[in-house]
Amino acid sequence: MKEIKDIFENYEQKPSDEVWNRLSARLDAEMPVAPKVVNRGLSSAWKWAAAVAVVVVLGGAVAFGLLYNRSSKQQQFVENKEERTEEQVMTEEPTTEMEVVTDVLAEEPVAPAVSHTEVNASKENPAPQERPARSETDAPKTNVRQEVLPANSTLARQLAADPVLKNLSDGSVDWSMPTHLSIPNLFTPNGDKVNDLFVVEGLEQYSSPKLVVRDKNNRIVYQAENYQNSWGGENCPDGVYHYEFTFFYNGIENQATGKVRIIRS
Amino acid sequence: MTASNIELEKIIAGCIENNRLSQRELYESYAPRLFVVCRRYANSEAEAEDILMEGFMEVFKNLKSYRGEGAFDKWIKSVMVRSAISHYRSTKHYRKELLMDEMDENSLVSEDTTVFATLEAKQILAQLEKCPDTERTVFNMKAIDGFSFEEIAKTLEKKENAVRIAYMRARNRLMAALGIDYQ
User: Which of B83, B73, B70 lies closest to B26 in space, CA to CA?
Assistant: First the structure.
Protein backbone atom coordinates (compact mmCIF):
# COMPACT_ATOMS: atom_id res chain seq x y z
CA MET A 1 0.00 0.00 0.00
CA LYS A 2 1.19 3.41 -0.86
CA GLU A 3 1.70 5.77 2.03
CA ILE A 4 1.29 9.49 1.94
CA LYS A 5 5.01 10.15 2.08
CA ASP A 6 5.46 8.08 -1.07
CA ILE A 7 3.09 10.39 -2.84
CA PHE A 8 5.38 13.30 -2.12
CA GLU A 9 8.55 11.31 -2.73
CA ASN A 10 8.87 12.15 -6.38
CA TYR A 11 6.66 15.15 -6.54
CA GLU A 12 8.45 18.29 -7.64
CA GLN A 13 7.40 21.86 -8.02
CA LYS A 14 9.59 24.64 -9.24
CA PRO A 15 9.55 27.73 -7.08
CA SER A 16 9.31 31.09 -8.76
CA ASP A 17 12.51 32.61 -10.14
CA GLU A 18 12.19 35.42 -7.67
CA VAL A 19 13.24 33.08 -4.87
CA TRP A 20 16.77 32.75 -6.24
CA ASN A 21 17.06 36.49 -6.68
CA ARG A 22 16.11 37.01 -3.05
CA LEU A 23 18.41 34.19 -1.98
CA SER A 24 21.39 35.58 -3.86
CA ALA A 25 20.71 39.00 -2.35
CA ARG A 26 20.72 37.39 1.09
CA LEU A 27 23.95 35.58 0.24
CA ASP A 28 25.55 38.81 -0.91
CA ALA A 29 24.52 40.45 2.33
CA GLU A 30 25.42 37.69 4.76
CA MET A 31 28.31 35.94 3.07
CA PRO A 32 31.22 37.65 1.29
CA VAL A 33 31.04 37.45 -2.47
CA ALA A 34 32.81 34.47 -3.93
CA PRO A 35 34.78 36.02 -6.85
CA LYS A 36 36.68 38.17 -4.36
CA VAL A 37 38.09 35.06 -2.75
CA VAL A 38 39.63 34.02 -6.05
CA ASN A 39 40.94 37.52 -6.65
CA ARG A 40 42.36 37.74 -3.18
CA GLY A 41 44.36 34.62 -3.77
CA LEU A 42 45.70 36.03 -7.00
CA SER A 43 46.43 39.45 -5.56
CA SER A 44 48.25 37.99 -2.57
CA ALA A 45 50.40 36.03 -4.98
CA TRP A 46 51.13 39.25 -6.86
CA LYS A 47 51.89 40.99 -3.58
CA TRP A 48 54.42 38.32 -2.72
CA ALA A 49 55.95 38.59 -6.14
CA ALA A 50 56.16 42.38 -5.79
CA ALA A 51 57.68 42.10 -2.31
CA VAL A 52 60.31 39.67 -3.56
CA ALA A 53 61.07 41.97 -6.48
CA VAL A 54 61.43 44.97 -4.18
CA VAL A 55 63.75 43.07 -1.88
CA VAL A 56 65.86 41.96 -4.83
CA VAL A 57 66.05 45.50 -6.23
CA LEU A 58 66.90 46.99 -2.84
CA GLY A 59 69.51 44.35 -2.19
CA GLY A 60 71.03 45.02 -5.58
CA ALA A 61 71.08 48.75 -4.95
CA VAL A 62 72.70 48.33 -1.54
CA ALA A 63 75.29 45.95 -2.90
CA PHE A 64 76.04 48.31 -5.77
CA GLY A 65 76.31 51.25 -3.37
CA LEU A 66 78.71 49.37 -1.14
CA LEU A 67 80.88 48.33 -4.05
CA TYR A 68 80.87 51.84 -5.52
CA ASN A 69 81.73 53.44 -2.16
CA ARG A 70 84.56 51.04 -1.61
CA SER A 71 86.08 51.63 -5.01
CA SER A 72 85.78 55.42 -4.70
CA LYS A 73 87.32 55.30 -1.22
CA GLN A 74 90.19 53.32 -2.60
CA GLN A 75 90.63 55.93 -5.28
CA GLN A 76 90.63 58.73 -2.70
CA PHE A 77 93.10 56.86 -0.61
CA VAL A 78 95.42 56.51 -3.56
CA GLU A 79 95.11 60.22 -4.35
CA ASN A 80 95.82 61.17 -0.73
CA LYS A 81 98.86 58.98 -0.77
CA GLU A 82 100.16 60.74 -3.83
CA GLU A 83 99.61 64.17 -2.26
CA ARG A 84 101.36 63.12 0.91
CA THR A 85 104.39 61.93 -0.91
CA GLU A 86 104.54 65.19 -2.85
CA GLU A 87 104.38 67.19 0.37
CA GLN A 88 107.05 65.10 1.99
CA VAL A 89 109.32 65.57 -0.93
CA MET A 90 108.77 69.29 -0.87
CA THR A 91 109.30 69.67 2.89
CA GLU A 92 112.53 67.81 2.67
CA GLU A 93 113.91 70.61 0.53
CA PRO A 94 115.93 73.08 2.62
CA THR A 95 113.95 76.30 2.48
CA THR A 96 114.58 79.21 4.80
CA GLU A 97 111.39 81.13 4.17
CA MET A 98 109.11 78.52 5.54
CA GLU A 99 106.00 79.64 7.32
CA VAL A 100 104.04 77.72 9.87
CA VAL A 101 100.41 78.24 9.16
CA THR A 102 97.53 76.95 11.16
CA ASP A 103 94.65 76.19 8.98
CA VAL A 104 91.23 75.10 9.94
CA LEU A 105 89.87 72.41 7.75
CA ALA A 106 87.02 73.41 5.51
CA GLU A 107 84.75 70.77 6.92
CA GLU A 108 85.33 71.82 10.50
CA PRO A 109 82.07 72.10 12.38
CA VAL A 110 81.39 74.94 14.78
CA ALA A 111 83.28 74.18 17.94
CA PRO A 112 80.87 72.34 20.18
CA ALA A 113 82.07 73.89 23.46
CA VAL A 114 81.43 77.48 22.46
CA SER A 115 78.92 79.23 24.71
CA HIS A 116 76.07 81.26 23.27
CA THR A 117 77.67 84.59 24.01
CA GLU A 118 80.87 83.50 22.44
CA VAL A 119 79.02 82.59 19.32
CA ASN A 120 77.42 85.98 19.44
CA ALA A 121 80.78 87.59 19.78
CA SER A 122 82.38 85.59 17.07
CA LYS A 123 79.67 86.65 14.67
CA GLU A 124 81.06 90.13 14.75
CA ASN A 125 84.58 88.94 14.14
CA PRO A 126 85.92 88.92 10.65
CA ALA A 127 86.06 85.31 9.77
CA PRO A 128 89.66 84.94 8.63
CA GLN A 129 90.97 86.52 11.82
CA GLU A 130 88.78 84.54 14.14
CA ARG A 131 89.55 81.17 12.70
CA PRO A 132 93.21 80.79 13.53
CA ALA A 133 92.70 82.44 16.91
CA ARG A 134 90.14 79.88 17.95
CA SER A 135 92.17 77.09 16.57
CA GLU A 136 95.05 78.00 18.89
CA THR A 137 92.99 77.81 22.06
CA ASP A 138 90.71 74.97 21.12
CA ALA A 139 93.30 73.02 19.32
CA PRO A 140 92.57 69.64 20.86
CA LYS A 141 88.83 70.00 20.51
CA THR A 142 88.56 71.30 16.99
CA ASN A 143 89.60 69.51 13.92
CA VAL A 144 92.77 71.48 13.30
CA ARG A 145 95.52 70.40 11.01
CA GLN A 146 98.86 72.07 11.10
CA GLU A 147 100.60 72.29 7.82
CA VAL A 148 103.98 73.41 6.83
CA LEU A 149 103.66 75.36 3.67
CA PRO A 150 106.61 75.94 1.39
CA ALA A 151 107.18 79.64 0.88
CA ASN A 152 106.83 79.47 -2.83
CA SER A 153 103.51 77.66 -2.79
CA THR A 154 100.40 79.42 -4.02
CA LEU A 155 98.76 79.42 -0.60
CA ALA A 156 101.84 80.84 1.10
CA ARG A 157 102.06 83.60 -1.46
CA GLN A 158 98.40 84.45 -0.95
CA LEU A 159 98.85 84.56 2.78
CA ALA A 160 101.86 86.81 2.49
CA ALA A 161 99.91 89.17 0.26
CA ASP A 162 97.08 89.45 2.79
CA PRO A 163 97.62 92.44 5.12
CA VAL A 164 95.94 90.76 8.06
CA LEU A 165 97.04 87.20 7.67
CA LYS A 166 100.67 87.89 6.96
CA ASN A 167 101.50 88.54 10.63
CA LEU A 168 99.82 85.42 11.89
CA SER A 169 102.93 83.66 12.95
CA ASP A 170 105.18 86.46 14.18
CA GLY A 171 103.59 86.57 17.66
CA SER A 172 102.82 90.27 17.54
CA VAL A 173 99.10 89.66 17.87
CA ASP A 174 97.53 87.71 20.70
CA TRP A 175 94.79 85.80 18.97
CA SER A 176 93.78 83.86 22.00
CA MET A 177 90.07 84.20 22.64
CA PRO A 178 88.52 84.11 26.08
CA THR A 179 86.73 80.86 26.47
CA HIS A 180 84.42 81.96 29.21
CA LEU A 181 81.73 84.60 28.98
CA SER A 182 78.50 84.04 30.83
CA ILE A 183 75.73 86.60 31.11
CA PRO A 184 72.94 85.75 33.55
CA ASN A 185 69.35 85.72 32.51
CA LEU A 186 68.11 86.27 36.08
CA PHE A 187 69.31 87.95 39.27
CA THR A 188 67.68 88.67 42.63
CA PRO A 189 68.64 92.09 44.07
CA ASN A 190 66.82 91.52 47.41
CA GLY A 191 69.80 92.27 49.64
CA ASP A 192 70.61 88.71 50.73
CA LYS A 193 74.03 88.95 49.13
CA VAL A 194 73.25 86.02 46.89
CA ASN A 195 72.99 86.85 43.22
CA ASP A 196 72.27 90.45 44.03
CA LEU A 197 74.15 91.95 41.10
CA PHE A 198 74.14 91.55 37.35
CA VAL A 199 77.43 89.72 37.13
CA VAL A 200 78.95 88.99 33.75
CA GLU A 201 81.41 86.21 34.26
CA GLY A 202 84.58 86.58 32.23
CA LEU A 203 84.17 90.34 32.11
CA GLU A 204 87.76 91.01 33.18
CA GLN A 205 89.08 89.61 29.89
CA TYR A 206 87.65 92.46 27.89
CA SER A 207 88.53 96.08 27.54
CA SER A 208 85.96 98.85 28.00
CA PRO A 209 82.91 96.69 28.58
CA LYS A 210 79.77 98.73 28.12
CA LEU A 211 76.36 97.81 29.42
CA VAL A 212 73.05 99.33 28.41
CA VAL A 213 69.84 98.03 29.98
CA ARG A 214 66.39 98.96 28.75
CA ASP A 215 62.96 98.21 30.10
CA LYS A 216 59.97 96.95 28.17
CA ASN A 217 59.21 100.45 26.92
CA ASN A 218 62.73 100.69 25.50
CA ARG A 219 63.71 103.33 28.09
CA ILE A 220 67.31 103.13 29.26
CA VAL A 221 67.25 102.21 32.95
CA TYR A 222 70.97 101.62 33.37
CA GLN A 223 73.98 102.58 31.38
CA ALA A 224 77.65 102.18 32.17
CA GLU A 225 80.85 102.65 30.26
CA ASN A 226 83.47 100.25 31.62
CA TYR A 227 80.94 98.15 33.46
CA GLN A 228 82.38 96.45 36.53
CA ASN A 229 79.62 94.00 37.57
CA SER A 230 78.08 96.66 39.77
CA TRP A 231 74.51 96.96 38.59
CA GLY A 232 72.03 95.82 41.22
CA GLY A 233 68.83 96.72 39.48
CA GLU A 234 68.36 99.98 41.36
CA ASN A 235 65.07 101.74 40.69
CA CYS A 236 63.98 98.82 38.54
CA PRO A 237 60.84 96.95 39.55
CA ASP A 238 60.69 93.20 39.06
CA GLY A 239 60.38 92.24 35.45
CA VAL A 240 62.21 91.49 32.27
CA TYR A 241 64.83 93.85 30.90
CA HIS A 242 66.81 93.91 27.74
CA TYR A 243 70.55 94.33 27.91
CA GLU A 244 73.19 95.18 25.34
CA PHE A 245 76.64 94.20 26.44
CA THR A 246 79.34 95.64 24.26
CA PHE A 247 82.95 94.73 24.73
CA PHE A 248 86.24 95.04 22.92
CA TYR A 249 88.78 92.38 22.47
CA ASN A 250 91.97 93.12 20.62
CA GLY A 251 90.35 96.27 19.38
CA ILE A 252 87.45 94.37 17.83
CA GLU A 253 84.01 95.30 19.01
CA ASN A 254 81.62 92.52 20.03
CA GLN A 255 78.13 92.75 21.31
CA ALA A 256 75.97 90.36 23.26
CA THR A 257 72.30 91.07 23.74
CA GLY A 258 69.59 89.29 25.63
CA LYS A 259 66.93 89.39 28.29
CA VAL A 260 67.48 89.44 32.02
CA ARG A 261 64.79 89.01 34.63
CA ILE A 262 64.83 90.78 37.98
CA ILE A 263 63.13 88.92 40.81
CA ARG A 264 63.24 90.25 44.35
CA SER A 265 60.78 88.04 46.24
CA MET B 1 18.99 13.54 -8.26
CA THR B 2 20.10 15.18 -11.42
CA ALA B 3 23.71 15.60 -10.42
CA SER B 4 25.96 12.59 -10.22
CA ASN B 5 28.02 12.08 -7.08
CA ILE B 6 31.23 13.51 -8.49
CA GLU B 7 29.47 16.56 -9.85
CA LEU B 8 27.69 16.93 -6.55
CA GLU B 9 30.96 16.86 -4.66
CA LYS B 10 32.33 19.56 -6.94
CA ILE B 11 29.24 21.66 -6.40
CA ILE B 12 29.40 21.23 -2.64
CA ALA B 13 33.08 22.16 -2.61
CA GLY B 14 32.25 25.27 -4.64
CA CYS B 15 29.47 26.15 -2.23
CA ILE B 16 31.82 25.83 0.73
CA GLU B 17 34.19 28.24 -1.04
CA ASN B 18 31.18 30.52 -1.35
CA ASN B 19 31.21 30.34 -5.13
CA ARG B 20 27.98 31.92 -6.32
CA LEU B 21 27.77 29.74 -9.43
CA SER B 22 28.04 26.53 -7.43
CA GLN B 23 25.42 27.77 -5.02
CA ARG B 24 23.14 28.56 -7.93
CA GLU B 25 23.72 25.09 -9.33
CA LEU B 26 22.91 23.44 -6.01
CA TYR B 27 19.81 25.55 -5.66
CA GLU B 28 18.59 24.78 -9.18
CA SER B 29 19.03 21.03 -8.73
CA TYR B 30 17.39 20.75 -5.30
CA ALA B 31 14.86 23.58 -5.16
CA PRO B 32 11.95 21.83 -6.99
CA ARG B 33 12.05 18.85 -4.68
CA LEU B 34 12.60 20.83 -1.50
CA PHE B 35 9.96 23.35 -2.45
CA VAL B 36 7.39 20.60 -2.07
CA VAL B 37 8.61 19.97 1.48
CA CYS B 38 8.22 23.66 2.19
CA ARG B 39 4.78 23.76 0.66
CA ARG B 40 3.60 20.95 2.88
CA TYR B 41 4.47 22.99 5.92
CA ALA B 42 3.36 26.36 4.59
CA ASN B 43 -0.09 27.84 4.41
CA SER B 44 0.66 29.53 1.11
CA GLU B 45 3.18 29.46 -1.71
CA ALA B 46 4.64 32.74 -0.50
CA GLU B 47 5.29 31.29 2.92
CA ALA B 48 6.76 28.20 1.28
CA GLU B 49 9.17 30.42 -0.63
CA ASP B 50 10.22 32.11 2.58
CA ILE B 51 10.86 28.75 4.18
CA LEU B 52 12.76 27.58 1.12
CA MET B 53 14.98 30.64 1.18
CA GLU B 54 15.72 30.37 4.88
CA GLY B 55 16.39 26.69 4.42
CA PHE B 56 18.88 27.29 1.64
CA MET B 57 20.62 29.95 3.68
CA GLU B 58 21.01 27.36 6.42
CA VAL B 59 22.27 24.85 3.86
CA PHE B 60 24.93 27.24 2.54
CA LYS B 61 25.99 28.28 6.02
CA ASN B 62 26.22 24.74 7.36
CA LEU B 63 27.56 22.88 4.32
CA LYS B 64 30.90 22.60 6.08
CA SER B 65 29.29 20.48 8.78
CA TYR B 66 28.02 18.04 6.17
CA ARG B 67 30.84 15.52 6.09
CA GLY B 68 29.49 13.22 3.47
CA GLU B 69 27.94 10.97 6.06
CA GLY B 70 24.69 9.66 4.71
CA ALA B 71 22.96 10.77 1.59
CA PHE B 72 23.11 14.42 0.76
CA ASP B 73 19.45 14.27 -0.28
CA LYS B 74 18.38 13.29 3.21
CA TRP B 75 20.65 15.85 4.84
CA ILE B 76 19.40 18.73 2.75
CA LYS B 77 15.81 17.63 3.23
CA SER B 78 16.22 17.47 7.00
CA VAL B 79 17.70 20.96 6.94
CA MET B 80 14.63 22.11 5.05
CA VAL B 81 12.27 20.42 7.53
CA ARG B 82 14.11 22.07 10.41
CA SER B 83 13.78 25.35 8.58
CA ALA B 84 10.03 24.80 8.24
CA ILE B 85 9.65 23.89 11.90
CA SER B 86 11.63 26.90 13.07
CA HIS B 87 9.45 29.01 10.80
CA TYR B 88 6.42 27.53 12.49
CA ARG B 89 7.91 28.32 15.89
CA SER B 90 8.79 31.85 14.85
CA THR B 91 5.17 32.54 13.92
CA LYS B 92 3.88 31.09 17.17
CA HIS B 93 2.62 34.38 18.52
CA TYR B 94 0.18 34.71 15.61
CA ARG B 95 -1.66 31.54 16.59
CA LYS B 96 -4.21 30.54 19.08
CA GLU B 97 -3.16 27.65 21.24
CA LEU B 98 -4.52 24.29 20.42
CA LEU B 99 -7.76 23.82 22.28
CA MET B 100 -8.35 20.63 24.09
CA ASP B 101 -12.00 19.94 23.68
CA GLU B 102 -14.28 17.01 24.23
CA MET B 103 -11.99 14.62 22.36
CA ASP B 104 -10.73 11.86 24.56
CA GLU B 105 -7.07 12.36 25.26
CA ASN B 106 -6.50 8.63 25.33
CA SER B 107 -8.40 7.78 22.21
CA LEU B 108 -6.55 5.62 19.76
CA VAL B 109 -4.93 7.53 17.00
CA SER B 110 -4.69 5.79 13.69
CA GLU B 111 -1.31 6.37 12.16
CA ASP B 112 -2.32 4.77 8.92
CA THR B 113 -1.76 7.11 6.01
CA THR B 114 -2.33 4.65 3.24
CA VAL B 115 -5.82 6.00 2.90
CA PHE B 116 -4.38 8.89 0.92
CA ALA B 117 -2.68 6.58 -1.54
CA THR B 118 -5.04 7.21 -4.37
CA LEU B 119 -4.67 10.96 -4.17
CA GLU B 120 -2.25 13.21 -5.93
CA ALA B 121 0.23 15.38 -4.13
CA LYS B 122 -1.34 18.46 -5.60
CA GLN B 123 -4.71 17.74 -4.01
CA ILE B 124 -3.24 16.96 -0.63
CA LEU B 125 -1.18 20.15 -0.71
CA ALA B 126 -4.23 22.20 -1.51
CA GLN B 127 -6.05 20.76 1.51
CA LEU B 128 -3.01 20.95 3.79
CA GLU B 129 -2.82 24.67 3.16
CA LYS B 130 -6.28 25.05 4.64
CA CYS B 131 -5.37 23.26 7.86
CA PRO B 132 -4.43 25.23 10.96
CA ASP B 133 -0.68 25.66 11.29
CA THR B 134 -0.20 23.35 14.26
CA GLU B 135 -2.27 20.52 12.78
CA ARG B 136 -0.51 20.81 9.47
CA THR B 137 2.94 20.86 11.04
CA VAL B 138 2.23 17.89 13.25
CA PHE B 139 0.68 15.94 10.42
CA ASN B 140 3.64 16.64 8.17
CA MET B 141 6.15 15.67 10.78
CA LYS B 142 4.36 12.50 11.72
CA ALA B 143 2.92 11.22 8.48
CA ILE B 144 5.55 12.27 5.98
CA ASP B 145 8.82 13.16 7.67
CA GLY B 146 8.79 10.27 10.11
CA PHE B 147 9.00 11.95 13.49
CA SER B 148 7.55 10.18 16.48
CA PHE B 149 4.91 11.90 18.58
CA GLU B 150 7.45 12.21 21.37
CA GLU B 151 9.94 13.99 19.12
CA ILE B 152 7.23 16.26 17.78
CA ALA B 153 6.09 17.17 21.27
CA LYS B 154 9.67 17.96 22.27
CA THR B 155 10.39 19.97 19.16
CA LEU B 156 7.20 22.00 19.24
CA GLU B 157 7.22 22.31 23.04
CA LYS B 158 3.79 20.79 23.38
CA LYS B 159 2.31 17.95 25.34
CA GLU B 160 2.45 14.66 23.55
CA ASN B 161 -1.31 14.20 23.85
CA ALA B 162 -1.93 17.58 22.31
CA VAL B 163 0.31 16.55 19.43
CA ARG B 164 -1.63 13.32 19.01
CA ILE B 165 -4.89 15.19 18.95
CA ALA B 166 -3.53 17.70 16.46
CA TYR B 167 -2.50 14.83 14.24
CA MET B 168 -5.88 13.19 14.55
CA ARG B 169 -7.68 16.36 13.66
CA ALA B 170 -5.49 17.00 10.68
CA ARG B 171 -5.96 13.53 9.41
CA ASN B 172 -9.73 13.64 9.85
CA ARG B 173 -9.89 17.05 8.27
CA LEU B 174 -7.93 15.92 5.25
CA MET B 175 -9.91 12.78 4.84
CA ALA B 176 -13.13 14.70 5.01
CA ALA B 177 -11.91 17.28 2.58
CA LEU B 178 -10.59 14.72 0.17
CA GLY B 179 -13.75 12.63 0.31
CA ILE B 180 -12.25 9.57 1.98
CA ASP B 181 -14.53 7.61 4.21
CA TYR B 182 -13.51 6.42 7.58
CA GLN B 183 -12.86 2.75 7.63
Answer: B73
Show residues of chain B in contact with A41, CB under 8 Å.
none
- Considering just the CA atoms, what is the radius of gyration of chain A in Å? 41
B8-45 pLDDT, tens digit each: 888 888 888 888 888 888 888 888 889 988 988 888 88
> How does pLDDT run across A2-43, given as a tens digit for each residue?
677 777 877 888 888 888 888 888 888 887 664 544 445 556
Q: Which residues of A touch B60 (CB under 8 A)?
A: 27, 31
Contact present, B163 and B101 (Cβ < 8 Å): no
Contact across the interface for B27 and A8, Cβ inside 8 Å: no
Say if B39 falls within a structural domain: yes
Shared domain for B71 and B149, answered yes or no, is no
Taking the CA of residue B158 and the nearest CA in chain A, the distance in Å comes to: 24
Number of A:B CB contacts under 8 A? 99
Q: List the CATH number of the domain containing B158.
A: 1.10.10.10
Domain range for B51 is: 5-93
Burial of A13 (0-12, 13-18, 19+ CB in 10 A): middle
Q: Which residue of A has its CA nearest to B18?
A: A34
- Phi-psi region at B58: left, alpha or beta (left = phi > 0; alpha = psi -120 to 50): alpha
Mark whether B141 and B68 lie in a shared domain: no
Least confident of A158-167, B15-24, B148-157, B165-174: A158-167
Same-domain status, B42 and B76: yes
Query: What's the domain count of chain B?
Result: 2
Each residue's pLDDT tens digit, B119-155: 777 888 888 888 888 888 888 888 888 888 888 888 8
Asked if B31 and A27 come within 8 Å (Cβ–Cβ), the reply is no
Among the partner residues B32, B60, B116, nearest to A12 by beta-carbon distance:
B32
